[in-house]
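Notes to self after the call with IL:
- keep both proteins in one doc
- input above output, always
- annotate only the second one for now

Protein 1:
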Amino acid sequence: MRSAPHLLLTVAVLLVAGCDCGRGRLVAANGGSLRVTLVGADPEAVGLTIKLGDGDRVRETSARISTLPLVTMLDDLPPGTYRATFTAWDVGPAALRSVELADLLIAMGGITEVTIDLSRGVVVTPAESCDGVDNDADGQVDEALDLPVCLTCLAGRTTPLGDDERCGPIACDGLDTFEVRSDADQSTCVKSEHAPLLTDRCAGAGACFAPNGQGCADGVERVVARAEACQVMEGCEAGTPSVSWSPDGTPCGAARECRAHLCVAIGVDAGPPGDPSGCADGTREGFLSLTSYPAIAACSGGWSVPGVTQVVAPACGRVSGNTSSNREGAGCAASDLCAGGWHVCRGKDEVGQKANGSCADAVPGGAQNNSLFFAVSQASQNDTSCDSSGDNDVFGCGNLGTQLAPAKNCGVLTRALASTHPGTCGFNEAEPNLGPWQCLGGTQGDLHEGALVTKQGCTNTSCSYGGAPVGNADKGGVLCCAD
């Protein structure tokens, strides 16, 4: 008798509640069955003997090997654990090869399947299937299954999922729309944005939702462009909105027309209302040319009432500015730096329009580096990116602060004060003891600098930079735009 080699051996127990489903075979309700599949044997083998032993009980059967694979069944086996021996014989008859399986489980009302290969010296593990059985005999049940998308194995049954990470992000931006909305004062380009589908991505067993399909959520509206009086908006519906100035003489209301970018009564001087300098103290520190920049001014000075992102009403009667009697800006808001008929510029779009598409002239020639920052009322949610809401970070023009990259979507704005720690504006040269900018607030102050910012950190020129004293009125202020 030859020594027993390694073998290919697969064992599976199918609990089929009395039915060998798909094979047309009934299983005894009070016992189990063994199906043996021989897939390989020595060329001279002509027969296979299967011997089962369970204590005093022994069950033996033989089958002739004519073609492979050979399948044979043993039925009506009492449930329990058996020692099984599989032996191939030649015509002698002499035993050729034999293999023993010490713990073969026969389950009530089930079929135990055994696959053997007596011609090779390898063990091949069968694939696991979703049936509540340890098909590959590794101590785990229904593991590492290769199931179709949106299906999982639960309690031995394939079960549909509501969401499956294998779907990946599902694009919905093909549903985005753009719409122009107008009222008496302005026109806005409103985008309905559809975020990618990241949850509830399964359309059914084996299928993810299609891109831009019924699984996508409703859009969220966002204003992407705004045109005020004497401005024209184009390209909104195509998704490429642009705003330009209306020519002088364009009607902008009853008995009113556009003159120098302003909507004024016909026959009235078109110059900006209030002080034409735009600054409350009558002097500009940037955009110096009134001819080139009649509707925007850079105004230096301090203020003590926090905030620039939201509109803060003047608090000290506009007695403020670096050449005023109140250089410290005590009791003043940022808007006190602007002359009557002017306001703190409302973000990147207004600055771009009134500064002729560039912030370059906000800093006059010869200005010292890191010496000027002029803030605007620009919203942001996070990451120094310009947005339509939120008061995170302080944005503006100048040569002081973090430089803004084009990807930040901030248009002509070039600089920002942005902190990652509460109680600071986030740029060393802007803050004490080098500058007066302060963003003092609570434990989440680094998320709301635009609502907290003041210029009160260098009272009585208590700071210095580059060998020169620095006070609250220094290192910039705000950009003021004509109403």
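Protein 2 (the one to annotate):
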Amino acid sequence: MNSLIRRDPLDDLFRGFFVRPVEYGPEPDAPSVKIDVKEQEKSYLVHAEIPGVKKDAIHVAIDGAVVSISAERREEKDVKEGERVLRTERYFGKVSRSFQLAQEIDEAQVTAKYTDGVLELTLPKKAATQARRITIQ
């Protein structure tokens, strides 16, 4: 059986004419702060991945047992004369993450260290207060 294929001569003429010069795939997703939380006897140890952010752009807030981490990466404009940007896949903007722990944190004893894109928090547990029994007179 013969099959006929009908072709439009203009298809060949404009094929590739409207194609972008560089194609890299889908747009990147906005990053998120990925964390590991370990519980020790007297504290919690948190490792948070925040690559490419300067340590003065990272903020940690503690409210009882809730820990909030936020960071901002600012776009650097370093395009030289004669250059043009074809694609930017690096994310610029704010990211944040909040999570709740099982026990309140002693804010005065918290330590933080930022090395190689990883924020390490040592969050000492607040001493548990014993329930007080009240005598009724």
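Annotation: The chain is about 5% helix and 35% strand. The domain at 28-75+92-103 is CATH 2.60.40.790 (Immunoglobulin-like).
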